[in-house]
Design goal:
Layout: H1 2-25, H2 31-73, E1 76-79, H3 86-95, E2 99-113, E3 119-127, H4 131-134, H5 136-141, E4 143-147, E5 156-160, H6 161-167, E6 174-180, E7 194-202, H7 206-211, E8 212-216, H8 217-224, E9 231-236, H9 242-252, E10 257-260, H10 261-264, H11 266-304, H12 306-314, H13 319-350, H14 352-374, H15 386-392, H16 400-421, H17 430-436
Parallel strand pairs: 3-8, 5-7
Antiparallel strand pairs: 1-9, 1-10, 2-3, 2-6, 2-9, 4-7, 5-8, 6-7
């Protein structure tokens, strides 16, 4: 019985698809085929554009997020851990499979002075000297511009690039922590907290570049005071599983306080999420425009095919089957357009550097041609747009869930438009249609 049902269903689907293709390809003026091709191209370019835009946006935002989580906030922060419970925290983290590493550090704010009395506020963090080597995430986000990330010597410091420029110092120079926040046993002002600059680095986030510096954790204990709180930065294999990991850690160490990266950077990450959603909404309007065009084209197709529809109805075709003919057309348009758009979008996203550099060359030569044609004297002022080079250096990042969602958008737009256009497919009676013919 089930075999007969399936056989009947596929046979019915087969003739619906055959009639749908026939309606899309053949008419007296050839407009159906053109409309179908243009609709498919509209879905294809809409999906492609959305994938490329979201990939570039992801790369742009993730360069900030990765730098913040790997250098500044970590995935989880643990505070209020006593010296007796420190080994317990390490043991608990070692047993959890999602925990990648645990790093202890001290942190304080300072007013740093450099050459010729230049001053700048900064965040100074005291870390283990081997963090740069052992922490792969930290190492990947730190780009050393000069010197080395060497904190093995006493009173050595590594500065961020913008901070070093504001202070007017380079590798080998000294800086002084003129004002330093720390424990109650630390002097707020001092003229003898001198550190030698051993390296200058940069990251993908300007806020870190303008304010961060690193010293040895032994120097942190010395200058920050005994009452300065010790912080433990925990990194995870899966940063999105932070809630379950915090719950696990809290059960093992109830006295400690744990803070997720979501809470620590809530305002900034929330702003990035809103920006991304607004951009997604604006670009998704492409599908609304394409859907309206498909709806109008499908309604015209329904009107032009009223005699064929009447004949199909007269020979016993069900209303639902006749409607399915036009819905199948929209489904086919969505599948072909979405598939082609996904392939093109992925190819362009993988090769964004080539695409933007190629676009830069095209724009340059077009501008050069028209300037040479109409104003040869100004040829010396024609230059390539540096904005394209900035975009070319942004590593595009694609997420599988977003690609699937965009493809479903591309499929849903023509499918819904076709369904809406076919609702009144048999509004006229068979006799009225044949009488008009």
């Amino acid at each position: 019985m089930n075999k007969k049902i399936f056989s009947s269903f596929f046979a019915n689907l087969k003739w619906i698809n055959a009639v749908s293709k026939r309606f899309a390809r053949v008419d007296r003026k050839g407009r159906s085929a053109a409309t179908s091709i243009l609709a498919t191209m509209g879905i294809c370019f809409g999906v492609m554009t959305l994938i490329v835009v979201m990939s570039v946006m992801n790369g742009f935002q993730m360069s900030f997020i990765d730098a913040i989580m790997e250098i500044s906030s970590y995935h989880i922060r643990a505070t209020e851990v006593s010296e007796e419970n420190e080994s317990t925290l390490y043991d608990i983290c070692k047993k959890n499979k999602n925990v990648l590493s645990v790093t202890s550090f001290y942190e304080a704010q300072t007013l740093m002075t450099g050459k010729r009395g230049r001053e700048n506020a900064a965040i100074i963090r005291a870390i283990q000297p081997d963090v740069y080597i052992n922490d792969k995430g930290f190492y990947g986000q730190i780009n050393m511009l000069s010197g080395s990330f060497n904190l093995s010597q006493q009173d050595s410091i590594v500065l961020a690039s913008s901070l070093a420029r504001k202070l007017g110092v380079s590798v080998g120079d000294t800086v002084n922590l003129l004002v330093l926040s720390g424990g109650s046993d630390v002097s707020l002002f001092s003229d003898d907290r001198y550190f030698k600059v051993t390296g200058i680095f940069s990251t993908g986030y300007s806020e870190i570049n303008s304010s961060f510096s690193f010293i040895n954790i032994a120097d942190g204990k010395k200058y920050f005071g005994s009452s300065s709180p010790k912080i433990y930065g925990i990194k995870l294999k899966n940063s999105n599983d932070d809630v379950h990991t915090i719950s696990y850690l809290e059960k093992g160490l109830e006295s400690a306080k744990f803070q997720s990266w979501r809470d620590y950077n809530k305002t900034f990450f929330g702003a990035l999420r809103i920006e991304k959603n607004i951009l997604l909404l604006l670009v998704a309007l492409i599908f609304v425009v394409v859907g309206i065009n498909i709806y109008n084209g499908m309604r015209r197709l329904v009107f032009e095919r009223r005699s064929e529809i009447a004949i199909l109805s007269a020979i016993g075709a069900k209303n639902s089957d006749i409607k399915s003919i036009f819905i199948m057309r929209g489904f086919t348009t969505g599948v072909i357009g979405s598939f082609a758009g996904v392939i093109l979008g992925i190819l362009i996203s993988i090769n964004t550097d080539f695409v933007f550099n190629f676009a830069s060359d095209i724009m340059f030569w077009v501008q050069y041609f028209f300037t040479a044609l109409f104003s040869p004297k100004n040829l010396m002022f024609v230059q390539e747009n540096s904005t394209y080079a900035v975009y070319a250096n942004i590593p595009a990042r694609m997420f599988f869930s977003e690609i699937v969602m965009i493809a479903l958008f591309g499929l849903a737009a023509p499918l819904f438009a076709s369904w809406a256009a076919s609702k009144n497919v048999l509004k006229m009676t068979v006799a009225e249609v044949l009488h008009d013919e």
